[in-house]
Design goal:
Low-confidence stretches: none
Structural class: alpha+beta
Helix content: 40-55%
Radius of gyration: 21 Å
């Protein structure tokens, strides 16, 4: 399954020719907002340029209502995906939600907890070396049962005994 925002010719054709065949709606409330996601799929590929293995087009319409100081701000976003297999709108909704959940979780930890985006390292081999070191640290924390990566990083940074446990040293 691929997001097609970077395939401009395909994106324009899908926007113009998408005909929903199966649709599911999910509404989530929390953190002062209401999110409504409508996932629609189609196998009708009329007017769509050839794309290797294409079998399903998916449209996700996200509407977010944020409540602030008695004002409701509404934003809407439409994303399109392609898939090389056939499944229900419900199944695609679950896959897409799961993917973004993992993506956001990993990005948040690497960016916020480890400060990766703020890093000033730009020299080619060092960028990869530091990425490996950050991943290694996260894997050590998780392997030792840490649920909160920020707390695990603080503990490792302030306590030699914690480092010994992480590295299984005596």
């Amino acid at each position: 399954m691929n997001f097609i925002g970077n395939q401009s010719g395909l994106l324009k054709a899908v926007e113009a020719n998408f005909q929903a065949q199966d649709t599911t709606l999910h509404i989530n409330k929390g953190h002062g907002r209401i999110e409504k996601r409508t996932v629609s799929t189609t196998h009708v590929l009329d007017g769509i340029p050839d794309f290797p293995g294409l079998q399903t087009l998916i449209r996700v319409t996200s509407e977010r209502q944020v409540h602030r100081a008695n004002i409701i701000e509404i934003s809407t976003e439409i994303r399109y995906y392609v898939a090389s297999f056939i499944d229900t709108a419900q199944a695609f909704a679950k896959r897409i939600r799961g993917y973004w959940g993992v993506e956001n979780k990993v990005h948040y930890v690497r960016d916020v907890t480890q400060g990766e985006d703020a890093s000033r390292i730009r020299t080619a081999p060092l960028v990869q070396i530091w990425a490996i070191a950050r991943n290694f640290a996260l894997n050590l924390y998780r392997d030792n049962g840490a649920k909160n990566m920020a707390q695990a990083q603080r503990n490792a940074g302030f306590n030699l005994n914690t480092l010994k446990v992480l590295f299984r040293m005596k």
